[in-house]
Structure formats: C-alpha cells, structure tokens
Design goal:
By secondary structure, the protein is α/β, with parallel strands linked by helices. The protein has 22 helices and 72 strands. Among the domains are: 40-75 and 91-314 and 339-355, no CATH class; 806-865, no CATH class; 897-909 and 1280-1427; 946-953 and 1092-1269, no CATH class; 956-1090, no CATH class. It is elongated. Residues 1-63, 917-951, 1204-1246 and 1383-1396 have low confidence and may be disordered.
Length: 1444
Amino acid sequence: MAGDLFARVCRLSLFFVSVVVVVAAFANPRLKSFFVDGLKEDFSILGAGFGDAKDLFIHDYSPPSPPPPPPHPPSDSCAEDLQGVGTFDTTCRIGANLNLSKDVYVEGTGSIDILSGVTVSCAVSGCSITFNISGDFSLGQSGSIVAGAFVLAAQNASLRAGSIINTTGLAGDPPPQTTGAPQDLAGAGGGHGGRGAACVTEKSKSQDDVWGGDPYSWSSLEIPNSYGSKGGSTSKENDYGGGGGGRVWLQVVNYLELNGTVLAEGGDGGIKGGGGSGGSIYIKAHASKGNGKISASGGDGWGGGSGGRVSIDIFSKHDDPEISVHGGKSNGCPDNAGAAGTFYDAVPRSLVVSNNNMSTSTNTLLYEFPHQPLWTNVYVRNKAKAAVPLLWSRVQVQGQLSLLCGGVLDFGLMHFASSEFELMAEELLMSDSIIRVYGALRMSVKMFLMWNSKMVIDGGGEVATSLLEASNLVVLKESSMIHSNANLGVHGQGLLNLSGPGDLIEAQRLILSLFYSINVGPGSVLRGPLENATTGDLSPKLNCELQDCPIELLHPPEDCNLNSSLSFTLQICRVEDIVVEGLIKGSVVHFHRARTILVHSSGIISASEMGCRGGIGRGMVLSNGIGGGGGHGGMGGDGYYNGSYVDGGVLYGNVELPCELGSGSGNDSLVGATAGGGIIVMGSMEHSLSSLSVHGELRADGESSIQKAVNDLEAGFGGGSGGTVLLFLHTLMVGETAILSSVGGKGGPNGGGGGGGGRIHFHWSEIPTGDEYVALTDVKGKVYMRGGLGQHQAHSGDNGTVTGKACPKGLYGIFCKECPTGTYKNVSGSDRALCKQCPPDELPHRAMYTYVRGGVAEIPCPYKCVSDRFHMPHCYTALEELIYTFGGPWLFGLLLTGLLILLALVLSVARMKFVGTDELPGPAPTQHGSQIDHSFPFLESLNEVMETNRAEESQGHVHRMYFMGPNTFSEPWHLPHSPPEQIKEIVYEDAFNRFVDEINALAAYQWWEGSVYSILSILAYPLAWSWQQWRRKKKVQRLREFVRSEYDHACLRSCRSRALYEGLKVAATSDLMLAYVDFYLGGDEKRPDLPPRLHQRLPMCLVFGGDGSYMAPFSLHSDNVLTSLMSQAVQPTIWYRLVAGLNARLRLVRRGRLKTSFIPVISWLESHANSVLSSHGLRIDLAWFQATASCYCQFGVLVQAADEGFERAHNEVVDGALRIDQTRLQHVQRSSPPSYLDTKSNILSKRIPGGVLDIYSVRMLEEKKDIFYPFSFILRNTKPVGHQDLVGLVISILLLGDFSLVLLTLLQLYSISLLNFFLVLFVLPLGILYPFPAGINALFSHGPRRSAGLARVYALWNMTSLINVLVAFVCGFIHFQTQSSSSRKHPNFQPWNFSMDESGWWMFPTGLMLCKCVQAQLINWHIANLEIQDRSVYSNDPSLFWQS
C-alpha cells in the first residue's frame, strides 16, 4: 500500500511543461582524447591510467560483444521430439506436459499451438528453447514454458491469460570477462543492468562505497542478449547464491497478444546467499495488446540482485503491460536493495531506470550515451539510483531527462571530485529527486524544473566552475535547492523563479546571468558564499587590506562570465527585471547591467556581517578579548577595560565613491572576532540601474559582538563597522516600510566599542535638468548609517555617511531635488545652503514665486500671479489693465465720463430725429368745430374719437355689468350668477346663469399658465409681467370672440338680439385689469321705459381700471357709451376734462398707501368736480365695489343726483327709480372686507354692492404689503416735470453709464473668480444686462403711448437688476474678507491709486446702485412727461383747471 501511495504522489508531481530550444554543449579539450578513445566496448577504467583508483573502478566497465552464434542444429520434430500432433510446416499442437533435458530447436513454415494448461519445461541452467517458424505461435491459458533461454520468431504470437514464459534463475554463463557474480563471501547480489547490493560490514565504509556484482552489457541494452549473474554466497562450502535470470526473445512480425507473463528474474538467495541479477528480455512486434507482465527484476537475498535489461520494440501498443527491472530485496540491509536494471523502449527511444520504490544505495551505472541517434528521454524514477562514473562524460538526450519520485543521479565519484561532465537535454525535470555532482557540471537545457529536489555540486576544493544553462525557464518549487561549494554560474534567456519558502541557490561564488527576469519568491534564498562553509570548500578572496577600490566594482567586465579572480561573491548580470521577495545575501553582491530591481516588503538584499574580520579599519583588541569597534564611514568606538580605552578603527574609503568592505574588531585568527558589513553594488559607471524600488531591506550592517565569553576571552570584542551600499541609478523609490542600512554592530557586553557606520552612496546617472527634469527619487522609508552602541562605558561608533552625486544647477541634496520655490542655485553641488533666496524686491504685488521644473538656475527668479484673474507682468486684474492702459484711475474716469456724455449727446440727437415728431400729438376737432384737449390721451377713453352722435350709439344700451376680480392667474375674472335688477326684464334668469358659467369657465386660466408666471416671477419679473399681459390679452380676445360669434345669446328675451348676436358685448380697459359686459335691446321689446335715461340709472357706478400699481395705475375708462350717457346731463368737453383731471390724480395713488394717496383724490372731487357737476344736477364720489371672497374689491366713482344726497340712496322710488334692496345691503355688508371700510359709512345702490369713501372712512383702509412694497418708493408714478429733452439726455447718460459700470463690475468679478462672475450674471439670469437694451428700446420707440409702456418695462428691468447688484456686493464682501489679510501685506500701489486693490470691491457695485436709483427717478419723470403734456391738470385752482 505504501508503495502504491508513493507512486501516486510521484505521478501527481509531474507538473512540468516542455519548451523547445537549441542548446550548445560544452567541450573539455583535456579529456577529449580520453572520451573518444576510452569509451569503447573493451574499455576498462584500469587501463586508463588510474591505477590508484583500482579498488573503486575495478568492476565499472562494459564487456565486449558476444561472438556470433554457431550455425543452427537440425530442427526437432513435432511428434517425436515434442510429442505433439502435426508438423512444424502445418500446425503442431502440443497437448501434454513435456519435460526436456536438452536444448530444443524448431524451424518450420507452420504454426505452434501449446494448449491450455500444458507445460513445456527444460529446467536446466542455460537450457535453450528456440521456435523459428513462419506461422503463428500460441501459448494457451495457464500454459507455461520453463527454460534458461526462450527464443521465438513467428508471424503472430499469443500469450493467453495465466500463461507464463519463465527463465527465472536458470541463466547460463554470463558473458566472459564480466564480474557480475560477486567473488567474496558477503552474500552480495549479482550484477547485470546495475550493481548488485552488498551490505556494509565495516564501519569505515559507507553504503555508497560497497556493492556486489558489476553491471555489464551496457552497449547492448537496446537489444539485450545476456544472462543474469549468480548471487554471492556466505559460505565456501555451499553456494547459496540465487541464479541469474535467463533470456527471452520474442520476435513477432505482425501481432503480439500479451496477456500472460514473461519472466527473466534473478533467483532468490535467501538469508545466506545473494540474489541473482535479472536476465534479458527483448520483444519486437509491429503491434500488440494485452495487460500482461514483463519482468527482469533481481532476486531477493542477503544482498539483492540487480535488475536485468528489458527492451521493447513495438510500433503500436494498444495496452501497456507491467514492466519491472527493479533490484531484488536485501534481507541483510533492507534499505539497500539491488540496483535497478534498464528498460529501453525502442519506438520513442526512451531509457527508464526504475526501482519500483525500493530504497537503494547501489548504483545503476550509465556509461556512454549514443550519439546518433540520440535517445529521446531518460527517466530515473521510483527510488532508482543512477550514476555516471566516468572521469569525463556527456549525458545527452534529445528530449527529457527526468528524475522523479526519489530518483538519484550521481555524476563522478564521491571521493574523487575532479571529474567534469556535460548534461544536454531539452528538459531537465526533477521531482522529489537528487542530482549529485562530484567535480564540475556543464548543463545545457531549455527547461529546468525542480520540485522538492536537490542538485548538489561538490567541487572538491579545487577551482572548479559549474555552469547551468537553461535557455527558457528555471523554476524551483517546494524547497528545491541548487548547492555548490565552488563556483557556480546559472545562465538563461527566460525566467529564473525561486517560487517560495525553502527554495535555494547557493555557492561559494555565484553568478546569475542573461535571464530576462529573476524572481526570488518569499522565503527563497540566493546566497554566495555559503553560510556554513567548511575548510574544504573553495573560499572567495576578500580584498580586506586594499586601500584602493577594486576596479571591477566600478567598471565590471561586460561578458558576465564567472571569473574567480574577481571580487564578486554573488553577481546578477545582464538580467532585465529582478523581483526580490526573499533573501539575496553575499559578501560582495553586484547587480550588473540590470534594468529594474523591485524589493518587496518581505525581500532582503543583504551583505550584513559578510565583510572583513579585521581589515583596514579594524578595532584594536587586548589579549583578554576587549576591543574597539571597527571603523569605516565613521570612527569605531573605543573599547573600555579597567579604566583605559582600546582604540577603535579609523576612517577609510572614498566618501564620494565608496566601494570598501567594512572592518571588524580583531582578526581572522581570533575566535569571536566580529566582521564588518559587505558590499552591495547596483549598476556600474557605464551601466546604471534604470529603476530601483525598495519596500523591503537593503543592508550592509556590521556584526555585533557575541554575548558569551569564548576560549577564556572576555565577551568584549567591538562591533564590526557598516559596509558599503553603492547604487548607480536613474530613479529610486523607497517605500514606507523600506530600510536602507549600513550601521555599525554593537560592542560586546564587557566593554566592546561600537562599530562605525558604513557608507551609502547614490550615484545618479544623467541627472535631467531644466524642462526635462523628473524627480529621481520617492523616498518614504528609512536610511540608517549610525554607529553601533558601545557597552559598559565603551564608546559608540560614529555615524557613517550618506552621499550622492554632485547635483547640477537648480538641484540640491543627496537625491538632487529641486531647490525650494523662491530660491535659486547657480553652482554645482549638493549642499542645501547653495540654494539662495531670490531677491524679494523683484516680486510684484499679487505675485508669488512659481515652481520651475528642474529648479531655478539663474536670477531673476520666475514668478506668477497669485491667481489666474491677474495678468503678467504686473499681476493686474483685467479691470486694472484696462484702467492703467488709459493712464490710471483718475484719467480713466475723466475719459470715461467724457465719452459717456459724448455718446449720450449723439444718442439724444439720434432720438430726437428718430421719434421727435411723435412726441406731441396734435389736437382733434370736435363735432361742433371746437377743439378737445388731447394732450394726455392715456387719461381719457381708449375709444375717444371725434365727436359723433353718441345718442344713436347708446340708444339700445341697458346696463353695463363689470367682471369681478383682478384678472390674475390665481383670481381670474368672473361674473356673479344672479342677474342684476337692471336686466331682469330682458334676460331669462336660468339661461343667464348658464351664460355666466360658460363665460366664467372661459375667463379662468390653465394651471400651466400660472406655473410659468411663478417661475418667471422668480427668475425675471419683467418677463413675468409681460407673460401675464400677453395671457390677459389672449383671454380678452377669447371672451370677445365667444360672445360675438360662439354664444347664441340664449339668455336674452329679444328674438332679434338672439338672431343677430347683437344683445351682448364684452370689452376691457387698456390695462386689461377691468372687463365688462354691455347689455343692449334688440329692438323688438316694445318697452317705452327701456332703455332707461341717465337720471333713471342713478346712482351709477363707474369702476376704475388698473390696480394702483406702478405698471397699472388707477384710471377711469370713458368710452362712447359712457360719454353718450353723461352727455344727457353734462357737455362732453366738461366730461372729458373731468376724466382727464381725475385720471391725473389717480396716477399718484399707490397701492400699499391708499389711505394717504386717496385723500387728495377725494379732495379734488369735492373742489374741482362736484363744484361744476352740481350745476348739472350730478355728483360723483369715490367708492369701492364688488368685494370678492379674497377681499379684493374694485374702486371707482359713484355718480348720483346732486339734490338727493346720501339720504335718497336709501329711499325707494316707484316706476323704475331708486328702490331699497335690504337683502343686497346685508349681502354687501357681509361681503365687504373689514380691512377696507366700516359698513356704517357704506352708501349702497340698489343695483351694485359697495361703499362710498370719504375723507374719514378712507382712513380705515388696511392693506397688506407684499415683499415688493419697498420698491414702490423708487418706482412710482409722479407729476410731470417738463424739460423732456433734458430728461431724455440725462437718462441717456445714465443708461450708458449704467452699462459701463455693469461691464466694469463684471470685469472686476471675473478678476475675482469665474464663480462670482456667473453668480452676478445669472442671479437673476442676465438681469444685470437687460436694462440697457430695454432702455434703448424705450428711448427709440415711436409714439408717447408705446414709449411710456416700454419705459415702464425699462424701469422694471432697472429695479430687477438691483438683485444682481446685491449679489455683486455679497461676492465682493466675501472675497474681501478672505483676501484682505494677503492684500494688506502687499501695499505696492502709489498713493493716488485709491482702492484699486481688494479693498475697493465696493466701488463699482455702489456706483451702479446709485446710478440705478437715479435712473428710476428720471424714468418716473420721463413717463409722466410722456403721459401728461398738459401740467395744468394738476392745478389746485379749479378755475384755472376748467379754464385750461
């Protein structure tokens, strides 16, 4: 079971993959003649001149070829000689057991059939049975052939299940002049394919030095034909040795069925004799099948016999039979079985040496390998032990050389390690195996793979150099090892990979070269010299007494050959990439012509404690072992003993280019003396390392003194000094976990001085300067060069040195960094003090010294402005550049003012020429030839035209019904459902209610219209106002269209009105705040009391348009119908003048201040209006009407008869006159908002709910003020001031000034930051820019009405932009607070340059705000001048008012 398990493990370990490469072999001229002439069939090591090695080489030779066989005897007969049936020319059947006593020779053209269970036996040693037939041969089930030799030649052959051909122990005489049979009485095994085993009986000998019978017939292993040898005996009287194995030849032309057994095993010798060696088996066929057994194994005995030789030449094998050539079991020494024989497979030309997992110390000798054709593969496996014993030999195979599952391959002789060998193959695969070389090995393979294996090279103490070349791949895994106690070179062109823990390559002098990549995995080791070298091992020479640096450290040879005269102990040469995760250790470690080296956090490159014991800087030592520390880069610390000091080592070496070994305390002759650190050199003067990245450790530390006394010496040696780390680099990266160290060792505990620190030098190659500069290093780890600590009052060693190559201009320090910003360096060197401060007086205000790639090499030092908003070379803002371009702030201000005045004059002249003729519309003639004053058209009816017969127009008018509500998106127009008293006689109430529902539905706005308005109100209120006016206009057009053409007038009683669609009309005021429905008679009512006369309509409500805001002031709308009605009592000219004066007063009424602004209107009505109307029997009073649920009411005037007064408003008049409506009175009192009026002062008409406002009741008004109320103090309707041209000129100047200040403010903010610029520009969006185009549009528009409307929009934009100005204030203030401290540090401006730094942030926003406020007042005057050209309407003298 154990053997099967071991075999499985071995099979699983075959992980290697083959790669093909042509490899050149090494030649040895000194041994060439010996190799050519000596390795013949008749070669004997005794005749080669090595007589002193007679005892070791006496049996190691190959016998001559056997002489040609004698002619065949006559053929035996089937019936007479073999007792069979038939003839050999037909078919001969042998059906009975046959015992023979002599050789049998059969020849014929027929077939032979040995039936099942039949035995043909000639159990005599050397007895031969030969069947030479042209037909078929068959050995039935359980049939057997027993003989000393069996030879078969047939067309086809069949060995049935259970059949056997057995020649075990029946061998004849082995070839002459062979020593396969042992001659002593040690009971050793016989030899053939390998040596027979012998058990060691002398303590002075090892098991490897003793064996039994010798191998022979190496030259004929491809066609083996030799008998096995007899085993030795332990007695002279009796021969207890087992017999050798016989010979079996099966030559089948076509097909071989092999389900039986073919044996040529050696006989057993028991416990008194050695086992016989296996014989020879040769099988040749075209094809075969069957799972039979083939064995030429050695026999068991006191010493096991060796295996024989088996050769199979079958072109096509359908099955693999079991083949055994292992040695026999040794009863006297169970761990030393007989050596394995050989199995040769002719088709793939493969040689297999397998011992069936039986342990042995006995060799299977491999002599000369064939040259043509080469063997393809050689396998040494399953604990087989093979040896190449010659003084010089070449082992060359075309494919694999595999050592698997405990296989061992020895080159040379253990006690004569002076041989030289060549090993050439495509692949060398090792798994759980060993290669031992005694002498030197030149290996050339394409792939070298090791798994838990060892290659041990014993150079024998001579200068022997072994070279291992693997062109494609070298992999060591699972604690594999390559060990040499001499010089070792490992070369390749691909990858060298030490995979993990336990993997090791070590030698006294080790060189690795020509690989593309070397990976030293975690826990793996590269070492040179050996850690525990013996005195017999080759010791590398250390130059401890040389003052000068060895030239090869700075200028190494280019060929990378292993030269024992050089000082390197471990060199890695011409390797592209090196990755270190394990340990690389040596006395002088050199990396030559490498590209990159990466040392991971677990990686260590060390030369610690590998320097000199003694040396130039050795510390002195007293006779009792107390000594000073070694010196190198720092002085060694003095030792201390009994009140006196022992001198430490001195300084030595070149600070600028160090390459010396560290020194120790004492010398080599003193036990316990300490060693200094070694040398680590990376790169060379000619070939610097491209990149070194260290996350682990680079150490060349000195050795610390031991803690215990040795050989009566005090434990007081000084510490060794640190060694040298010399790095020729392009770039260096030292990670946070990295350590670069060359520290001194600690002194001994009894007064040893500390070792001095070593030297670390960075020699940079091609330090880039100027624009080509890149940082050479990124150092985050630790660099140590301190001295070691002294003990017991001894001195510590001085610190070593860390130096770098002298830096060019602009760079400083060990790592050639750029001089700090604000300094310059114009000389070469590395001292920080060479970086001088730049002259501060050359630095402008708002500037700072700028980083320059490669450092600043000359003055003046370059600088840049502290922000991108400042511009070189004076670091002015864009605004300051503009100002200083025109001579500074004062001159710039004067030039700008003059330019604005000039442009304003040009603008005014252009405006006068463009719109001057439209400013003052001329008078229009009246019907009677008189003139009506039209100097203020917007205060009169929008429908005012020349006088006509208004009686005709108003003949059918019955009543005017006003819409309730302000016509906003939240509160649209709506009509009350109950028809008023005035129209109940002409409408159907139900139909009227349906009409009201339809008209109210049309008057309502969609949700999205209000949403757009809300959004625009936030972003840009002027646009929101324009949007509202546009939707109002569309709404009025929709209502008119509905009433005029869509509604069928079904609510009217008149058939004619319904037919002609003439009974209803919808109209609205120009401000679109007030709408109304006029009801007309159809002409077919035949009612003499309709339409009512003016006195019948009294009291009559006239509602104001507008809402008292800046954009829609209150105004009385007097159209043709109203003018015609009033003309029944008052002349039209008087009515027009009254409306104009009233509208002029209403312009001054401001929402939010109705209490105070309505009082002048009430006073004017009493003093100017009623004083004239009373003579016509009329009176008008200010009143409010139609309060809605949201407390919105409409204002207007109440027209009533002058002689009725307030009391008559409460009387009922019969026949169509006034009539009290207590229900409506109560309704109005309930619906009237308490914030407007006390209901006690209400005077209600019978038709329209509302109340009269007098000078007392108006004080009770309470209004809600919105967030825009403060703007009403700036935007308000005023009285005209005249001087229209002058006002326009000043507005033009301010408009241009405003735009100039806006641009300057934006330029200032852009100089501060782009964020501030966009904040001011887009909060509100572009609001700061719109006033200018709006103002130009207003100034250059045709007609006073259009100009006034556009001027109001201009005023809105002007006020809206104040928010942007406020944002500019905030941005400027925040910037000033964050920058004020730095600004105060640079007062570099002239005294007259007031506030041009950050402290002047408020100037332009303040000027802009003042400009906009002044503009607002001028726009108010401009609008007043446009809307009211006749200022006499504001006259306080009634006579003067009516006279005008």
